[in-house]
Design brief:
This protein has about 425 residues and is of the alpha/beta class. It is about 35% helix and about 20% strand. The protein folds into three domains: about 5-90, NAD(P)-binding Rossmann-like Domain (Rossmann fold, 3-Layer(aba) Sandwich); about 100-275, UDP-N-acetylmuramoyl-L-alanine:D-glutamate ligase; about 285-420, Protein-Tyrosine Phosphatase, Chain A (Alpha-Beta Complex), CATH 3.90.190.20. It contains 16 helices and 20 strands. A six-stranded mixed β-sheet has the order 8-7-9-6-10-11, with helices on both faces. A hairpin with a 6-residue loop joins strand 15 and strand 16.
Length: about 425
C-alpha cells in the first residue's frame, strides 16, 4: 500500500470513509472537494485537509490519486494528476485494496436494499461479540455514522455495481439482494448489467442470492408502524421478529442478513437480538419531526421499484390519511432510462410533487429533467406539480392541511435542504 494519497471528491460518503480508513492505517491523506458541509468538516476534525481549489504541490507529492465516479476527465485536479503521471485509482480499486487486509470480507450488492442489509449484518456480528469493520453507503440512525474501524477479522461493506466497482472485490461471502435496471448511463443495457453481477458472483467464495427456503408469514405493523412477522424455513417456525423499522421490503433484507449470520455460525437468539435492536439507516423510511405537519417521512428511494414500495408502506401505515409525495429525481439519465417505469408509478399517485433534479455528475442534456417529466406526467395525472426551489415548495406545502402525510423521496440534496432550513429536524 502506498504512503501518500490525494482524493478527488473526498467529501463523498464512501470516499470520505476510505480516506479515514487509510489514515487509520498510517497513510498520509489529503483531498479536494467543492462542497463545504458536515462531511468535509468531519474530515478536517480528523486532521484530513480538504482543498477547495487546485493544489498542485499536494498532488505532486502524492503517490496515488484516488477519484470518484463524479470526477470527469476535464476536471482540473485530474488533468494535473495525469500531466504529472500520477498513479490514478478509482474508489472501487481503493476499497478492494483495503478489503484485502481483512480475514473475511462480506459484501452486499444489489439494486435495492444493500445499505440496510449491510447495516443489519454488521449489527449481527457486533451483537455476537465480534469486532467488525464497517463501510456503509448511509448513516446509521443509532450513532449517525457510516463506518466503524475495529478488528481485522471482518470487513462488512456495500458493493456498488456502478462503473463495475464491485469487481475489485473478492469477498468470502457476498449477498445479492436483487438485480433491476439501474446505472444504464454506464452499462448501456440491462444484459451488460446482469453480466457484471454474474462476474461478481464468480469472484465470491459463497453467494447468498435467494431466500433458500426461508419465508415470512403474518407480516403486519404495530401502532408505531414497525414491522412484525414470523420467519419460517421450509414451513418450520424459526423466529418471531418485532423490528424497529417500517418498510415491508426489510423482511427480505432480514432474511438475507439472517442467512449470513447462520453461515458465520451465529445462533438464532443472538440474531434475533441484533435484528430487533437495529434502528435502521437514515432516510430509509425515516420518520422525522416537523413543526408544520404531524407525519413526515424521508426515504432514499430513487428507483421506480423503491418508490413504489415506499408509497405502498406509507399507505399501509398511515391509513385513511392523504399522502403527499415529493420526489427529487436523481440524475437526468436515470429519469430518461426508466421513464416508462416512472410513469407507471406516479400516474396514480394522489398528489405527486417534483423537486428539481439532483444532477450529481450530469448535465441536463444527459437525459430528462424533473420539470419536463412533471409536465409530461400532468397529461396523465392533473395533480402533478413541479418546484425548482425550496421557498416555492414550502409555500405550497404550507397551504395543505397539517394532517396530511408528507413523503419525501429521492437520493438528492432535498433532505439536507429541509434540515438546513429547519423545515424538519
Amino acid at each position: 500500500m502506498a504512503n501518500r494519497y490525494y482524493f478527488l471528491g473526498i467529501g463523498g460518503i464512501s470516499m470520505s470513509t476510505l480516506a479515514i480508513m487509510l489514515k487509520n492505517e498510517g497513510c498520509s491523506v489529503r483531498g479536494s472537494d467543492e462542497r463545504e458541509d458536515k462531511t468535509t468538516e468531519f474530515l478536517k476534525e480528523r486532521k484530513i485537509k480538504v482543498d477547495d481549489r487546485l493544489n498542485r504541490k499536494q498532488i505532486s507529492k502524492a503517490d496515488v490519486v484516488v477519484k470518484s465516479a463524479a470526477i470527469k476527465d476535464d476536471n482540473p485536479f485530474l488533468r494535473y494528476a495525469v500531466k504529472k503521471k500520477k498513479k490514478i485509482l478509482s474508489r472501487g480499486q481503493i476499497l478492494g485494496q483495503i478489503c484485502g487486509g481483512y480475514k473475511t470480507t462480506i459484501a452486499v450488492a444489489g439494486s435495492h436494499g444493500k445499505t440496510t442489509t449491510t447495516a443489519m449484518i454488521y449489527e449481527i456480528l457486533k451483537t455476537a461479540g465480534e469486532k467488525p469493520t464497517l463501510h456503509l453507503g448511509g448513516y446509521r440512525i443509532e450513532d449517525g455514522k457510516n463506518y466503524e474501524i475495529d478488528g481485522k477479522d471482518f470487513f462488512v461493506t456495500e458493493a456498488c455495481e456502478y462503473y463495475d466497482n464491485f469487481l475489485y472485490l473478492h469477498p468470502q461471502i457476498s449477498v445479492i439482494t436483487n438485480v433491476e435496471k439501474e446505472h444504464l448511463d454506464y452499462f448501456k443495457t440491462f444484459e451488460r448489467q446482469k453480466e457484471s453481477f454474474e462476474k461478481f458472483k464468480r469472484q465470491s467464495k459463497v453467494v447468498v442470492d435467494s431466500t433458500d427456503g426461508y419465508s415470512a408469514g403474518r407480516i403486519r405493523h404495530d401502532k408505531d408502524g414497525f414491522l412484525m412477522f414470523k420467519l419460517f424455513h421450509h414451513d418450520k417456525l424459526v423466529l418471531n421478529l418485532h423490528l424497529k423499522i417500517c418498510e415491508n421490503v426489510n423482511v427480505q433484507n432480514c432474511v438475507y442478513a439472517y442467512q449470513v449470520g447462520k453461515l458465520l455460525g451465529i445462533d438464532d437468539k443472538t440474531i434475533k437480538t441484533a435484528l430487533e435492536s437495529f434502528k435502521g439507516v437514515k432516510t430509509r423510511f425515516e420518520k422525522v419531526e416537523c413543526k408544520y405537519f404531524d407525519n413526515v417521512v424521508c426515504d432514499y428511494a430513487h428507483h421506480p421499484t423503491e418508490i413504489e414500495k415506499a408509497i405502498e408502506t406509507a399507505r399501509k401505515i398511515f391509513k385513511r390519511k392523504k399522502i403527499i409525495t415529493i420526489f427529487q429525481p436523481h440524475t437526468f439519465s436515470r429519469t430518461q432510462a426508466l421513464l416508462p417505469e416512472f410513469f407507471r408509478v406516479f400516474k396514480n399517485v394522489e398528489m405527486p410533487i417534483f423537486f428539481r433534479t439532483y444532477s450529481a455528475r450530469e448535465n441536463e442534456s444527459d437525459g430528462m429533467s424533473a420539470k419536463t417529466f412533471a409536465e409530461l406526467l400532468k397529461r396523465q395525472n392533473k395533480n402533478a406539480r413541479y418546484f425548482d426551489n425550496y421557498v416555492a415548495l414550502k409555500n405550497f406545502l404550507l397551504e395543505i392541511d397539517r394532517d396530511c402525510v408528507l413523503l419525501f423521496l429521492g437520493a438528492g440534496d432535498l433532505p439536507n435542504i429541509l434540515h438546513k432550513k429547519k423545515f424538519i429536524t
